[in-house]
Amino acid sequence: MVKFFLLTSALAAGLFSNPVFSDSDGANRSYLANFEQESASQDARQIADWVLDSRDNQNMPFLIIDKKNAKVFVFDPAGQIMGASAVLLGVAVGDDSSKGVGQRKLASIPVAERTTPAGRFVGSLSNNLSGKGVLWIDYDAAISLHRVITSNAKQQRAQRLESSMISDNRISFGCINVPARFYDQLIEQTFQRTNGVIYVLPEVRSIQETFGSYVVNENTLRISSAALAAANVNKPTAHVIKLR
Hints:
The protein is an alpha/beta fold. Helices cover 22% and strands 22% of the residues. The protein has a single domain, classed as L,D-transpeptidase catalytic domain-like. It is built from six helices and eleven strands. The chain has a nine-stranded mixed β-sheet, with helices on both faces. The protein has a two-stranded parallel ribbon with strand order 5-9. The two termini are 24 Å apart.
């Protein structure tokens, strides 16, 4: 079985709710991401909490792509996980795309330059040059998230998505491949009427260097709440999400 799950039907049915937590002074706390029972690395959890605490997603749905663990997490704007899946990534280790790589023919790109770039990207659904639907991540570098490509049987991409070996997930020219059903039922549905923010976690640099992020803890939450109040920023009712 391909490694992914979807929570969209449960969410649509209202089976999950985000309880409100208030500090002793009555001020609502910032959001924390809810991964439910899905396993995730410390870096993925830290970035998800930072995204919500800093409002960096600007009320858009967001993805976190954990390259070190070859996994993608999909969140709604409030930080509720909607699904997760194994992914296929660029065969080369690295956090940057080579200059002009998006204008080259695939066959001319050396293996060492077939990287999935790290960083913050605003993505949207569109078609590639073959007319197939993709979620564009970095258009200039020709990096997108799309259904797994199975036209080259020798690459065994579908089988690689099922593998428990992270090294098996490094096969693409840089694009992110996901199971077709995951793309159809979650990616397309989530981004059909909106852009979204994609956070591709680094594998060479630190997450702090890549995103300018910080660790969200009790002190951070209180400081963030006080700073927003001082700036007279209208913020939504904040929730602390408990893992189930």
